[in-house]
Design a protein that fits this description.
heterodimer, A: alpha+beta, four-stranded antiparallel beta sheet, 12 helices, 21% helix, 21% strand, elongated, B: alpha+beta, five-stranded antiparallel beta sheet, 2 helices
């Protein structure tokens, strides 16, 4: 029979013969409301099991506490039972019995011995029963409630729709402890209470075993058991993919890991909060595991700082490759012909000295004189921004001799355009490092000596501005356009002068001095903005000595436009910073002092046209040079009022003149058409070296390089060409200019430590190959 | 931004420069003036060489690092500026 357990719902108003458990064991059950009639029922409660027909076929507990009832059953059972048997058969009971016995548990085991056969028969009866009477009679014993013999109807309520919404009470109760597995120990401790009995049993058993062999009472019997059929079960899983990974632990790899991990540990010791630090160190300990970074966007890479820096370096290196021979020549590193890839510096110098010896030997054998000095053009600073602009002034940086500032601005009034200041580095002749645009043409430039990144710029409209070349800003640091006393005419020269021997403390230090065409020489300082005081006002001097040139009117008859004479240039004495010379448009040179701002100390008159440049000799403190548009260059001595020497080579205005910083007798001059290097020791009539300008281009400014043999020439096309003086040695011949004081020595020092080892690799084209 | 572009353009127009390549860390070219196959070849080979060079430098002194690599051959000079995220390569023929 099939036993289909169904859940029953208790109906409180019926006599419900549902629960076979005790009141204690099913507290929620309605059928146990009234206590049992003094029967301690110790059933093991089971849930209801009903078969298809609604009959209760719950396996009942075997133990019946009421012996009287049991007895009555006995007779009945024996009558109808077919499976009752003797004790001996009991052991070879059916499967069902044993299961029922196990249901009943430990209890009933002890009853076996007492010979109650009702166990097996009852259960069999139950399973086979179809009668209702019998169960009811049984129930009389087990149920304490009512003696109403009612048909036990288990209302199997089908779950209907409306019942879904009803509140259902569920009672959760703790069931009795079911013993699923009880493995009693097979050994007991010697100290325990059972030890004696166990020992006795053990000894009895050994006796039994001994007696068994050969004893007729015992007979061996074999049994066969079925072996369980084995069954193979297969399981499938995904293939485990294996990948090989290898790594090499380098020195630096370990160093990196140690550094990043070690940082966490260092923090640990210095942190005050131990808990926090331990957690943080743990976190920092984690990645040693290469962190998988998100791949940076390509555009971001291009914008990054490091990329710009790398580009900068790369450009310099490319240019170094291109310009290497020229730069080497500039820096007076020996360039040897016909040799490829010189690595060792010593090797080079060895070669050089060998060659020099050879050459000297050769030249001593030769009948010819020393090779003629010449200029070799190395390169030129220019770029597309500067083409077409006129180079008006150039200045070296005082601290970094590789940095050159060039100012571009027109001289003439009529074609003014916005000016430009470019800071060029020797390492990049093709593009300036800094570009500053100014609102009007630049006419004067100077770098400061005390703060080497300050560049003072004088412009055609009279403005003076200072720029900081270190920063990338395009605007000046300070501007004089707001100043009340600013210059109203083009500023033709600016200079930073260090007043060391000043009277008052305020005047000490570096000051910016400027001269402008409005006739004032002003000293600028910073006091709530840029402000200036006038060191000197250049007054027009009435001059009876010289006849007026053709074209100029008599001064007496004409009304003066201004009483000031436009100043064009000035130069402070190299040793005494109080004395300076100023040149005017009239052609006069005034010697002035900072202490007197009303009077000139001296006036030197020789030039017939505006003076473009005055410069003191760096070697001889009494001597100065002046050049003007009257085609002449004059050499003066401080105490003589007429020039000592005058130089004229062409009929062109001389724009710029400069003493060589190396040789006492050498100076360079630039006029419109050509550049000349004069060596007074060699000749006082003709320039030693002449370099004509390219056609259509006027040369406008000249600058000697401080530590090398090079000359920079600026022209009206925006190019600054760098020339190297070759085979040039200042004449060691007789100095017939005895007026010039000694020592006019050669200040040529070609010591090895002056050469700058900026380039390690030489790559000289092997022209012969 | 614009300065970077300008500088790149200027580099490409310098005398003797054959090609300029910027590749990212995976070897994908970001900017190049050469054709793709050459670019990929250069990038791949130079990447390995740079790694080896860097490894060498750092093995000797782990606090040191490689900043620039120049390889001069008979025909060209290859200049590599390596970085963690990218690599800048310029090939120049200096004797042109």
């Amino acid at each position: 029979t099939e036993m289909a357990p169904t859940v029953t719902r208790s109906q409180p108003n019926r006599a419900y013969l549902g629960c076979s458990g005790t009141g204690a064991s099913c507290p929620g059950c309605a059928s146990h409301k009234s206590p049992s009639t003094a029967k301690s029922e110790t059933y093991i409660s089971l849930s209801q099991v009903l078969d298809e027909n609604g009959k209760d076929v719950t396996p009942r507990p075997v133990y019946q506490p009421d012996p009287a009832a049991v007895q009555s059953k006995h007779s009945k059972i024996f009558a109808s039972d077919t499976s009752g048997g003797t004790m001996s058969d009991f052991y070879s009971t059916t499967y069902q019995t044993t299961t029922n016995a196990s249901f009943a548990g430990a209890f009933t085991r002890s009853l076996f011995g007492s010979g109650s056969v009702s166990i097996g028969s009852q259960s069999i009866m139950e399973s086979m029963s179809e009668e209702i009477e019998d169960p009811s009679s049984k129930r009389d014993n087990s149920i304490s409630l009512s003696d109403v013999q009612v048909k036990r109807e288990e209302v199997k309520e089908l779950i209907q729709e409306e019942m879904l919404d009803d509140m259902v009470d569920l009672y959760l109760v703790e069931s009795d402890t079911l013993c699923l597995l009880d493995m009693p120990a097979i050994s007991v401790s010697v100290d325990s209470m059972e030890a004696e009995s166990v020992k006795e049993r053990n000894s009895r058993y050994t006796e039994l075993c001994k007696n068994r062999t050969g004893n007729d009472k015992y007979m061996g019997r074999s049994m066969q058991t079925f072996n369980g059929a084995s069954k193979t079960k297969e399981v499938q899983s995904e293939a485990i993919t294996m990948a090989d990974a290898a790594t090499i632990a380098n020195n630096w790899d370990m160093y990196d890991s140690f550094c990043s991990a070690g940082q966490g540990e260092v923090d640990l010791s210095t942190d005050t909060d131990k808990a926090m630090s331990s957690s943080s160190s743990r976190m920092e300990m984690e990645p040693f595991v290469v962190p998988s970074e998100s791949k940076p966007d390509p555009e971001l890479i291009l914008q990054s700082e490091e990329f710009q820096q790398h580009l900068f370096v790369m450009e310099r290196i490319i240019l170094e490759n291109i310009y290497q021979p020229k730069l080497a020549a500039y820096r007076q590193l020996p360039t040897l012909e016909g040799m490829v890839l010189l690595k060792c510096w010593n090797h080079v110098t060895e070669q050089l000295s060998k060659q020099k010896r050879l050459r000297r030997e050769e030249s001593s054998l030769d009948e010819e004189g020393p090779p003629t000095p010449a200029l070799e053009r190395l390169w030129s600073f220019s770029c597309e921004l500067t083409t077409g602009r006129n180079v008006s002034s150039m200045a070296w940086n005082k601290r970094n001799p590789d940095l050159l500032a060039v100012g571009y601005g027109q001289f003439a009034f009529k074609d003014q355009k916005p000016g430009l200041v470019c800071c060029w580095s020797l390492k990049n002749p093709s593009w300036p490092e800094r570009i500053f645009t100014c609102q009007s043409g630049v006419t004067a430039l100077d770098f400061s000596a005390s703060s080497a990144s300050m560049l003072a710029v004088g412009m055609h409209d009279g403005t003076i501005a200072t720029y900081n070349v270190q920063s990338r800003e395009k605007t000046p640091v300070i501007d004089s356009s707001d100043c009340v006393h600013k210059h109203t005419s083009p500023v033709w020269q600016v200079r930073w002068i260090n007043h060391e021997r000043a009277l008052s403390g305020e005047d000490k230090g570096e000051a910016l001095i400027s001269v402008s065409a409005d006739g004032r020489i002003s000293k600028w300082f910073l006091r709530k903005g840029l402000d200036c005081i006038d060191l000197m006002k250049l007054k027009r001097t009435r001059n009876d000595r010289f006849k007026r040139q053709v074209g100029e009117k008599e001064r007496k008859s004409e009304a003066l436009i201004s009483r000031q004479a436009p100043g064009l240039c000035f130069d402070f004495h190299p040793t005494d910073s109080n004395i300076y010379l100023a040149g005017t448009e009239e052609g006069h040179i005034h010697k002035c002092s900072c202490s007197y701002n009303e009077q000139f100390l001296e006036t030197y008159q020789a030039h017939k046209g505006p003076l473009y440049r005055i410069t003191w000799s760096p070697f001889c403190s009494d001597v100065f040079l002046s050049c003007s548009s009257d085609w002449t260059i004059q050499l003066w001595r401080q105490d003589l009022f007429t020039p000592v020497l005058g130089f004229m080579s062409t009929q062109r205005a001389v724009y710029d003149v400069m003493w060589s910083p190396k040789w006492a007798t050498v100076f360079g001059a630039v006029n419109e058409g050509r550049m000349e290097i004069w060596d007074l020791g060699a000749s006082i009539l003709d320039p030693t070296i002449v370099n004509p300008a390219s056609p259509g281009v006027k040369l406008t400014s000249l600058l000697f390089a401080t530590e090398t043999d090079c000359v920079l020439v600026g022209d009206s096309d925006g190019q600054v060409s760098v020339y190297q003086l070759k085979n040039f040695t200042a004449g060691e011949g007789t100095q017939d200019v005895s007026i010039l004081q000694p020592p006019m020595r050669l200040v040529k020092s070609m010591s090895a430590d002056r050469r700058r080892l900026g380039l390690f690799w030489f790559y000289i084209e092997n022209k012969n190959v | 931004q614009a300065e970077v572009e300008e500088t790149l353009k200027r580099i490409q127009t310098h005398k003797g420069v054959i090609g300029t390549i910027v590749v990212n860390a995976e070897g994908i070219p970001i900017r190049t003036t050469l054709d793709n196959s050459t670019t990929v070849q250069y990038a791949g080979l130079l990447h390995q060489l740079t790694m080896k060079a860097r490894s060498t430098v750092r093995d000797i002194d782990p606090q040191n690092d490689l900043t620039f690599l120049r390889i001069r051959s008979k025909k060209h000079e290859i200049m590599v500026a390596p970085d963690k995220e990218y690599m800048l390569i310029v090939i120049q023929n200096p004797s042109e």
